[in-house]
Amino acid sequence: MTVTDVKKLPAPQPEAEAEKASEKETEGLIARLGRWLERDHLPLQTDVLSLFTARMTDVAANRKAKQWSQRYLAADAKERRALLAGLAQASAGLEPREDKGLRLFRRLYAQADSLHLLVELRADMLRWRNQVAGLTVLERELEGLLSSWFDVGMLELRPITWDSPASLLEKLIQYEAVHEIRSWDELRHRVASQRRCYAFFHPRMSDVPLIFVEIAFAAEMAGDVQMLLDPAVPAGDPSKARWAIFYSISNTQPGLRGISFGNFLLKRVIDQLLIELPKLKSFATLSPIPGFVDWLGKQDGKAIHELLHDKADRQKALDDPKAGQAWVERLQAAAAGKAGDAVRKSGLRLVAHYLKSMKNGQPLDPVARFHLGNGARIERINWAADSSPKGIAQSCGIMVNYLYELDQLDDNLALLAAGKPKTGMNLRWL
C-alpha cells in the first residue's frame, strides 16, 4: 500500500467513535455496579445458620466465619447493623437453642484470631439492641462469654508514668471518662512520681488498655476532687502517706460495659501499692454519682418527702408530682453558691437513699454497683466535692467515698447479696 493509498482511506466517522465510547462507558458502569452489588450482598441465611449449628471442626462453616469476621471488621456502621440483623434472624429460629449462640462466638473468635472482634461486636449490639429484633438474646450470651474471658485474674497490671510511650499516654487522655484531662500539664500531674496510675491489659489484646486507675496519696480521706486535680496544689510525699485515694477509674471499651472483670479488681491494685508503699493504711475512692440527678428528677413528692430535713420542705413536697425535679434545681443552685444547712442535709440524705437503693439485686448507681461489687462499703458523702459543670449536672456537685477494708470485702459482698449495702458510721447520722 502506498502513502497515497493511505491518504485515501476514509476517516473514522464521529458516530462510530461515539458508539465505541458509549459501549466502554456502559461496560465500566456495569462493572462498577457489579462490584457494588457484590459488596452489598449479605450472606445467605443458610450460610449464617451454619455458623451456629455446624460442628466446630466443620471446614466450610469455619471458612464462612472467617469471611464474615473480615467483612464485619472492614464494614461501616450501616453494613455492620445489617450483618448483625442477619445473625439475630438466624438466631431466632434455633430450636433447641442450647449452646449454639456461644458456639457462634467461639467460632468467630477462633477464625478471626481476634478478641477485639468480639468486644466490638458487643459494643455494636449494645448500640442497636433496641432497634434490631432478637439482638438482646445474642448480646446477653456474648456478655456471659466475655465475663469469663475477662476475669481480673487473667488481666495484666502495668504502671503508667511520664516515661511511658506517648501512644499510651494519649490513650489515657482519650479514654479518661471521669475527670477530663485538658492539657499535658494536667496529664504530667496525674502520672507524676507522687501519684500512681495503672492500666489493665488482656494478654490477647496486649496493645489495648482496658481500664485506667488513677491514685493520689493523702494524710486523710479526701473529700474535694478539685484539690486532687489541681496541678498547682503540691502533692505530698507518698512514702509518708497513710491514705491512697482512687479518684478516677475509666473503662476504655464500650463492648465491656457492665462486665465486672471479677470481684476484687481494685484489690490487685491495693496489693501492688502495698509492695511499693508499705506504710499505707487505708484505701478509699472519691467517686462521682453519675445517676443521681436523673434518678431524683423522676421522683414525686411522696417518694422523697420523708428524706427532706426541713418540716416546711417536707410539707411542700408531699403532693408535688414534680418535687424531685424541683430539688434537682435547688441542689444545683446551692452547690454553685452558699448552701443553707437544711438544703445541704436534705441533699446528703437524698444521695444516701439513692446509693443504697437496689434494683434486680444490684445498686441503681453504676459506680456504686462497681465498688460495692468489689467489696467496698459506702463510707462518706461529700457536699460540693466536684464543682465542674459535669459534676453539677450529674450529682449536684456531691461525691462519695467508698472504703476498701481488705478483711471486710467478703462480708460486705454477703450483705450486698442480701440487698443491704454496707455503710459507714458517717451515714448513720443522715
Automatic annotation (TrEMBL):
Region (Disordered): 1-24
UniProt cross-references to Gene3D superfamilies, sorted A to Z: Malonyl-CoA decarboxylase, catalytic domain, Malonyl-CoA decarboxylase, oligemerization domain
PANTHER family xrefs: MALONYL-COA DECARBOXYLASE, MITOCHONDRIAL, PTHR28641
One Pfam family matching this protein: MCD
InterPro entries associated with the record: Malonyl_CoA_deC (IPR038917), Malonyl_CoA_deC_C (IPR007956), Malonyl_CoA_deC_C_sf (IPR042303), MCD_N (IPR035372), MCD_N_sf (IPR038351)
GO molecular function, a single term: malonyl-CoA decarboxylase activity
Domain Malonyl-CoA decarboxylase C-terminal, residue spans: 153-405
Annotated protein name in UniProt: Malonyl-CoA decarboxylase family protein
Gene Ontology terms: biological process: fatty acid biosynthetic process
Domain Malonyl-CoA decarboxylase N-terminal: 100-150
Organism (species): Parapusillimonas granuli
